[in-house]
Specification:
Elements (H helix, E strand, L loop, with lengths): L21 H11 L8 E6 L3 E6 L3 E6 L5 H14 L12 E3 L9 E5 L16 H11 L1
Length: 140
């Protein structure tokens, strides 16, 4: 696993303290979720706060890059639970909560992968006015 931790990280809150690699993710996920053994594990994407790995074709696992994102991950789980069945859009469900292991120090989460495109890249006119308004009122 690659860490990238250096002195002075506290002064650079954007620095990715932890960024697991594919072999580490494979080991952690298959030990904690045996039903996923034998599925391909591959890097999928990353953003400012999380690195995402695909496990098979139907699961995405989000790994926090630093400790400061843990409260956000906990809040995400609460918000997703509150929104289930209340928004006119699919939401991640059937989640798998992972624990720190093999040198990776943070909890992580896996979701069943959703079809479609991310909301931030829905083309103009991709949602009807009433759909967009309803989703915005609920989520906002």
């Amino acid at each position: 696993m690659s860490s990238g931790r250096t002195d002075g990280d506290e002064a650079r809150p954007w620095h990715a303290r932890e960024r697991p690699d594919v072999p580490t993710v494979r080991r952690i996920v298959t030990e904690q979720f045996p039903r996923l053994r034998g599925r391909e594990v591959r890097y999928f994407a990353e953003g400012w706060d999380f690195t995402v790995f695909a496990v098979g074709d139907d699961r995405l696992f989000r790994f926090p890059k630093r400790e400061t994102t843990l409260p956000w991950l906990a809040r995400e789980l609460v918000v997703l639970d509150a929104l289930q069945g209340r928004v006119p859009a699919p939401l991640p469900a059937d989640r798998l909560l992972g624990e720190p292991a093999h040198g990776y120090p943070f909890p992580f989460v896996g979701y069943r992968r959703l079809g479609g495109v991310p909301l931030d890249i829905v083309p103009p006119g991709g949602m009807s006015g009433p759909q967009a308004r309803a989703l915005g009122e609920i989520v906002g």
